[in-house]
Amino acid sequence: MAKRTAQDIRRRNRFDALRCVFAAPGPVSRQEIAAATGLSFATVANLVAELLEAGVLREAGHEDSKGGRPRARLAVNAERGALVGIDVAETSLRGRAVRPGADGAARRAAAAAADRRPAAGRGRRHRGGGVEGLSDSTVEAPRILGAGVSVPGLVEREGGVSVFSPYWSWRDVPLRSLLAERLTMPLYLDNPLKAGTVAEMWFGAGREVDDLVVLTLRAGVGAGIAVDGALYRGATNSAGEWGHTCLVRGGRACRCGRQGCVEAYVSSRGIADTVRELDAESPLLDPDEDVVVTKVARAAAEGDAVARRSRGADRPPPGGGRGRSPQPVQSADPGTGRLGGRTARRAAVAADPRRHRGARATGDAPGAHLPAKHRAGQSGHPRSRHLRP
After folding, report:
1. From 234, 268, 278, 349, which residue has the greatest number of CB atoms within 10 Å?
2. What pLDDT, in 10s, does the model give residues 198-223?
3. In which band, very low, low, confident or very high, does the pLDDT at 228 lie, cut at 50, 70 and 90?
């Protein structure tokens, strides 16, 4: 077991304090941060001093302290610059520039279509140009602090290498180095499962719990895992890669070369294939498999027979034999579970529009909750849930 150093502990404390400020509905005091995280006031004061000096936080007024000096209120410094997030998905490229802490989260969204299985050289150029175009168009935040790039498949994040991606037949592609030839900003490369889980830890359900599982359902499927408030990567950064676990023995061919994988049935392509098997002329079918998922979710909620059967509600297990169904949420026993990925979010909105009334038509809905016992704070600090409205 790796021994935690003083630097590791300080980094974790800084993460807790900063996440607390992000989670708060408005400016907070040092005393509130200490109460929400369980850290001592002296520790919080030192961390806040570092974050103020670095320009990450700013003072946003004062409040009466019922005797003594007025307490300073703290908020994220929106003027520091913008962060760029790039999702190199299996069939598309989407990016967003965000200025943390800005009113209305001043941002610019950009999406670019990509070939379903582009050639390696063309795919690299196409993706590099998409990132570059997004950074050039960010008018509201002239300073780009850095860009995070998520790439499906196995990723060696320290070296910025896409080790293997079955969707484009990439092997050992030095993607960060290729992007660095055109971009001057700091670049960070990771797997979308890990990136999505970190996003939930900072801005979503992970602010309330220490243990979290985020299931990502799109052209690929997988799970991101957080344990005791920290992202769990596994020995080779491949923890949660359950999409190629056998679900149906002797089942459909999967793009990985095996048969019966979870991805062959649960991904957007898998759902479209199921609809096609049930009714080759179904109006639910569409050239865009993400659209099929949205149609199926909406139609199933309305009682459509094909849609319900495609989701397994009214039909027996496919194939002659079934493998052990992977249960990442139950086996991990998290404080909460989230359903991530743009396709899954759009489907959640379509299936229950009243619940997601505030979601935009672009599909950027909040991740859907998965039922799980809520155990916020049992394995560590109570986190910043006390500061949420």
Report:
1. 268
2. 888 887 878 778 888 888 888 888 88
3. confident
More confident site: 339 or 95: 95
